[in-house]
Amino acid sequence: MPSKDCIFCKIANKEFNTEFVVETEDYVSFKDLSPQAPVHALVIPKQHFASLNEMKDAELMGKLLQGARETAEKLGVGDNYRVVINTGEKAGQSVFHMHVHVLGGRAMHWPPG
Ligand code: AMP
């Protein structure tokens, strides 16, 4: 169920003038408000899922990964980028509308903090 208070539902519904990097009928991607790398974008399904754990549609999950790849390419980091899905508060999830982070433009370290 979409939440009327969900900021990412509002972004997907074009309630703000968010510039999309990629848009399809299933998802949109856009730049993160608080970038953690020179390139940092988010890919979100248009449909509301609180987290990865609520998603059962494997085809849609695959489409989000395609969206991450296309977003990285469009933002010029298609050869080197990191994809992150924080699931649950302790894993760092702060917005409870499933999203895929796409980070690039600098060297990445492992393990992440
Ligand atoms: P997470 O901590 O994995 O849930 O990631 C949430 C991400 O959403 C953070 O990187 C935030 O900077 C980002 N964010 C929150 N609100 C907005 C917004 N209105 N537009 C773009 N990015 C946002």
In short:
The protein has 113 residues and is of the alpha+beta class. 20% of the residues lie in helices and 22% in strands.
Order of helices and strands: HEEEHEE
- CATH class (first level) name: Alpha Beta
CATH topology call? HIT family, subunit A
Mean residue pLDDT: 96
CATH architecture: 2-Layer Sandwich
Helical residues, percent: 10-25%
Protein structure class: alpha+beta
Strand content: 15-25%
- Ends distance: 32 Å
Ligands and ions found: adenosine monophosphate
Main sheet makeup:
5 strands, antiparallel
For the biggest β-sheet, the strand order reads 1-2-3-5-4
Count the domains: 1
Write the layout of secondary structure elements.
Blueprint: H1 7-12, E1 20-23, E2 27-31, E3 39-45, H2 58-74, E4 81-84, E5 100-104
Antiparallel strand pairs: 1-2, 2-3, 3-5, 4-5
Question: Would you give an account of this structure?
Answer:
- This protein has 113 residues and is an alpha+beta fold.
- It has one domain: HIT-like (HIT family, subunit A), CATH 3.30.428.10.
- It has two helices and five strands.
- It has a five-stranded antiparallel β-sheet with strand order 1-2-3-5-4, with helices on one face.
- Strand 2 and strand 3 form a beta hairpin.
- The longest helix has 17 residues.
- The radius of gyration is 13 Å and the shape is globular.
- 27% of the residues are buried.
- The structure holds adenosine monophosphate.
- Adenosine monophosphate binds next to loops.
- Adenosine monophosphate (AMP) binds next to loops.
